[in-house]
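User: Second chain of the day. Same drill as before.
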Amino acid sequence: MDVLNEFGKALSYAGKTISSAVDSMIKTNRRKAMISRIRVVIRNERENTERTYAALGKYYFEHLRDPENGNTEQLCRAVEESEARLKRAFDKLDELREEFAKADEEDVCAGCEKNSCQDCEYYANEDVPADPAEVSEEAAEEAAEEAAAEAPEAEKVPTETEENKDEVQKDSEEPKA
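Assistant: Same format as last time:
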């Protein structure tokens, strides 16, 4: 009887230990879930703030621009230069699309009824890519390189948000337990 009593105590102790471990895991998971939800809220609010700052900056640029303010005027010029580079890139993209469309129309040999230009005798001595997308990727890469070469590095003007970004990030991170 004494053995059964001891065995019962051991089982009871094991049950309490397992129950305690499960409760501890549940508490830890709840805490992690709460921290995770708060981090999502923080990330969403940062994104909302960034969008709001961008909208405010756009409004300032379009309506309240002050040519006498050196800091803001430098930023406004950087925006104008960036917009000009974007316009040139889009123009080049349109030009390439038109060029490829014309090339596709002109690239058909008379009377050829082959499934592919690789099989056509007209192209027998030329290096024709099997995939027409290869041509457009190469041309797109060339256009991107040209645009990158034209685009000078914009001068970086420190702003309050950039200076405080690391501090804000450190404050928002929870220490790991």
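The chain is about 75% helix and 0% strand.

User: Great, on to the next one.
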